[in-house]
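Sequence in, structure out.
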Amino acid sequence: MRRRDDARHSRQRARILEVAQRCFAVGGFHQTGMAEICAAAGMSPGALYRYFDSKQAIIEAMAEQERQDNRRALAPLATADNVIDGLLRVVAGLAPMWGSRAAGRLTLEVGAEAARNDRIAEIFAAADADVRELLTAALRTGQERGEVRRNLDPAATAFVLIALVDGLIGRGAFPLPVPRKAVSAALADLIRRLLAP
């Protein structure tokens, strides 16, 4: 019996996830079937089912990938000499998503499906909670070091910042009415004004 090549298996799973995300962004979670994902990936159903046994498994893998991506995106907060500077580096790293039609459509689709489907809401809520906890902890650290206003509620502020970023990404589903650079500059200014003592 031939042994599985783990590196190849991981690459193929990542490729399928990427293809599935594109399909979901165009057709939505509910309307997109496994047959459509197979066709877009250029795979037979039998081949695809070796990687994911259901559409639900693909969505769960997407949520787990989002969780890992979020942790990587927030990594500058852990090593920043100043929490606000670290947060601005995180935001700068997200800037390519402002105006990204695919990212915008997928963000809106996740929100819409989560509003209809409790299981999808549960899957993505875990990834969202991860980000809120990391950001809340960073804001508390900033308050202790005197870098962030002490009269801010860290948990509520983290929630508002996440909603702001999610909204900007979701707006990518529509034509961006201002340059991406201007969006990033305006967001950085808002963050400084909100958080600085």
